[in-house]
Specification:
Largest sheet: 7 strands, parallel
Structural class: alpha/beta
Distance between the termini: 46 Å
CATH architecture: 3-Layer(aba) Sandwich
CATH class: Alpha Beta
Bound molecules: nicotinamide-adenine-dinucleotide
Strand order of the largest sheet: 3-2-1-4-5-6-7
Number of domains: 1
Low-confidence stretches: none
Number of helices: 9
Strand content: 5-15%
Order of helices and strands: EHEHEHEHEHHEHHHE
Mean pLDDT: 97
Number of strands: 7
CATH superfamily: NAD(P)-binding Rossmann-like Domain
Amino acid sequence: MGDEMTKVALITGACGGIGRALVYKYASQGISLAIADKSLNEVTILVDEVVSKGGTAKAFSGDLTKKSYCDNLPNVVKQEFGRIDIIVNNAGLMRRGAITDTSDKDYNLSMSVNVEAPFRIVRAAIPLMAEAGGGAIVNTSSCWGINPGPNHLIYCTTKAALAAMTQCLGRDHAHQNIRINAVCPNEVNTSMLRTGFEIRGLNPDAAINELNKSVPLGHIAEPEEIANVIAFLTSDDAGYICGSLVEVNGGKAVY
Ligand SMILES: NC(=O)c1ccc[n+]([C@@H]2O[C@H](COP(=O)([O-])OP(=O)(O)OC[C@H]3O[C@@H](n4cnc5c(N)ncnc54)[C@H](O)[C@@H]3O)[C@@H](O)[C@H]2O)c1
């Protein structure tokens, strides 16, 4: 049995665009999956799909704004599977607009899901991974967490916080053989992007065709193109990558 075949990966936001692509990728590698997302129904359907195709998956649905859910999640996964090797803090949400458009509710929700939840999950996971001799964590930040784009004040702020957190974590826990990195995509063809076009009264397919012209590689990312990078970062092949912010942008940098 290959090394990947014994690993257990926890993915948050697993039923979303990038999360789902990563579930399929890990399942194809024989990695066992702890599938976490908000909707019990959606999580159950995805677990059943993976299991029906011969994979191993269990459901860990819950709301990442709940502190106790986040604090307990790594331990619960370890209890269920006997180990936890990989964590991908992939769940996230986007509130749009300038600071004057950003309510207290937008601020608190964005900070809670995009920053506090990864903070709590990683804090709970470090002792477990350290005791087991190591692990790999990827946080899904954004190109906009490195160079903020216009009119997404709170989103950029949270993704910058997550990027800084990742760099601190990467340095602080390397000595425990825990590698912590962030993937920083530019635009990805998921519901997060598409709903933004819908809100503005645009046809998402037409808007994406237009957006594709702005990318040097000719198209915005498909979720699989981000999932492939996350899977690499958590694999043993990336064994010397630690505390990095990996931009995946098709050549389209944010200035
Ligand atoms: N789509 C893009 O253009 C893009 C670009 C850069 C970074 N990202 C980041 O990639 C990650 C994945 O996003 P996506 O594009 O797949 O979007 P998505 O909306 O398809 O998926 C996000 C997932 O997070 C889950 N989630 C949100 N709030 C939650 C909560 N309170 N509790 C539990 N789960 C919750 C959602 O249910 C959803 O399944 C996010 O962190 C996002 O910020 C996306």
